[in-house]
Amino acid sequence: MTAYLVEPASHVSGTVRVPGDKSISHRALMLGGIAEGITEVRGFLESEDCLATMRAMRALGVTIEQKGPHEVRVHGVGMRGLHGASHPLDLGNSGTAMRLMTGLLSGQSFDSELIGDSSLMKRPMERAATPLRQMGARIATLNGKPPVKISGGAALNGIRFELPVASAQVKSAVLLGGLYAQGTTTVIEPAVTRDHTERMLLGFGCALRANGDEVQLDPPQRLRACALAVPGDFSSSAFFMVAGSIGRGSGLTIKGVGINPTRTGMLDILALMGADLRVAGHRSAGAEPVADIEVHPARLKGIHVPEHLVPLAIDEFPALFVAAACAEGETLVTGAEELRVKESDRIQVMADGLRAMGVECEVLADGMRIQGRPEGLPFSGGTVDSHGDHRIAMSFAVASLRAAAPIRILDVANVATSFPGFVDVARGAGLDLAEHA
Ligand code: S3P
Fold first, then answer.
1. Which residue has its alpha carbon closest to ligand 1 atom 9?
2. Is 245 in the pocket of ligand 1 (CB under 6 A)?
3. Looking at ligand 1, which atom is closest to the CA of residue 194?
4. CA within 20 to 30 Å of 60's CA: 42, 73, 111, 405, which one?
5. Under a CB-based contact definition with an 8 Å cutoff, are residues 421 and 19 in contact?
6. Beta carbons within 10 angstroms of residue 271's beta carbon
7. Does 169 sit in the ligand 1 pocket, CB within 6 Å?
8. Ligand 1 atom showing the smallest separation from residue 342 Cα
9. What is the model's pLDDT at position 376?
10. What is the pLDDT of residues 203-225, one digit of tens each?
11. Helix axes 22-34, 168-178, angle to 10 degrees
C-alpha cells in the first residue's frame, strides 16, 4: 500500500499550476461522445477518475484520441450512436462518473452495468436512480449501492424534480436522462451546486434555461461538437490556498484556476477566517471563468462556517479542517452531512487523522468542531490513514507545514484519481514529501 512520508516544513513560495478540472473533464468526454462531430478538449485532466470515464465511453463505441499532454479529441457518435458494452463498465473510484453515466445510459436502447472499486461499491446510488425511474428508466441497484444495472429501451418522460439533497451529480444525471426524454425536464435545487453540466450543454447547443434554483431542459435533436478548454481544478488549488495561508514565506500564486462561483465557497470561508487571498487576472476558458489566486501567510481564526457556503465548498472540507486546526479558537462546521458519503466518511476519517496529530475535535452528525492550534502549538506528527481518499491524503500532506515531527499518510495511491503529479507540485511549493511503496 503506498504511503507518503512528509517531513515537517515551514516555508512555501512560488508559482503553482494545478491540473485540469475533474468535473469538467468527465462531462467533456460524456457530452463530446454523444455530440455530432469532433470535440477538441484542451486542459483535460488525465487522472484515474477521468480515465475511467474515458474507458467507459470507448467501450460504448466512442473513439477518443489522446493527442498530447492534456489534449483529447472526442469523435462524437451522436445522441443515438452509442452501442452496448460487452462487459460491465468499471468506473473505479469515481462517484461522478457512475451517477452521470446512470443518467446518460438510462435513455439508451441497450443494457448497461456499472461497477467500481471497493469505495465506490459502497456509495449511495438511489439518489440518481430514483428520479430517473420516475422518468421511466429501468434501473436496479443492490440495496441502493452498485452494481447499477440499467435496462435499455425504456421510454423516458421529462419530469419536474425537486432534489432532496444539494447534489450536482444527481442534477446532472437527471439532465442527461432529460436529453433522451419526451418533454421538458425541470430540476429544482435546495441550494446552488456546481453548474458545469448546464454551461457545457449550452455550449453544445442545447436549449436549457437556468433561473435561480431551477434548471429546465428541452430535449435536443442533436448536440453539436465544440472546442472546450478545461481550467485548473479549484478543488486541487484548495490544498495550496491552505498551504500558502498556514506556511511561512512569501506565499503562493496558483495559476489558471477555474473560479466558477458555484465552486468557490472556500474563498469566502477562508476570507472569513482571516486568510490573505487575492484573485487576479480574470479571464475565461470557454464557458468557465478563470483567474490566478495569490495567497499569503495569515493568522487564521476559527469561525462557524455559514451553512449556505457548504455546497459551494463541498470537496474542500478536508483541506479546510486542516486550516481550522491551525486557526486561533474554535471552528464549527454544520450542515455538511454529505461529507459522510464521499470517497470516504470525510468527517470521521479527518477527525481520526487530526486526533492522531494531537488536535482536539468533536465529531458531529453533520460536521465537526475543531479546536485550533495556532502557531507555537504545532501538530505532533504521527500516522494518519487516508482510507484511500485522495483529498484526505493531500490535506494531511499540507498539515506538515505546522507539524513538529514527520507525518506518515497511509493508502495514498488514489491521489492519482484527481491530482496526478501532486508530489512534484507540492515539493515545488516547499513541502517535503516522498511517496513509498
Ligand atoms: C461533483 C459533484 C459533487 C462533488 C464531486 C464532483 C460533480 O458531488 O463532491 O466531487 O462533478 O458533479 P455531489 O453531487 O455528490 O455533491
1. 315
2. no
3. 12
4. 42
5. yes
6. 12
7. yes
8. 9
9. 84
10. 999 999 999 899 999 999 999 99
11. 10
User: Within a 10 A sphere around the Cβ of 260, how many other Cβ atoms?
Assistant: 20
pLDDT of residue 243: 98
Task: Identify the pLDDT of residue 375.
Answer: 82
pLDDT tens-digit series, residues 251-268? 999 999 999 999 999 999
Which run of H or of E encompasses 51?
Answer: helix 48-59
DSSP structure class, residue 154:
P
Q: Is the pTM of this model over 0.85?
A: yes
Ligand 1 touching residue 233 (CB < 6 A): no
Q: Which three cell numbers stand for residue 5?
A: 512520508
**What is residue 396's predicted lDDT score, i.e. its pLDDT?**
98
Give residue 189 CA to ligand 1 midpoint distance, Å: 14
Q: Which residue in the list 21, 195, 315, 385 is annotated as catalytic?
A: 315
| DSSP code of residue 428 | H
Residue 341 backbone phi and psi in degrees, to 5: -120, 30
Pick out the chain residues at pLDDT < 50: none
Extended strands (E) in 43-144? 63-68, 71-77, 89-90, 112-115, 138-142
Pocket test for ligand 1, best of 26, 96, 338 (most atoms within 8 A of CB): 96
d(CA 97, CA 33): 14
Q: Which cell goes with 339?
A: 461529507
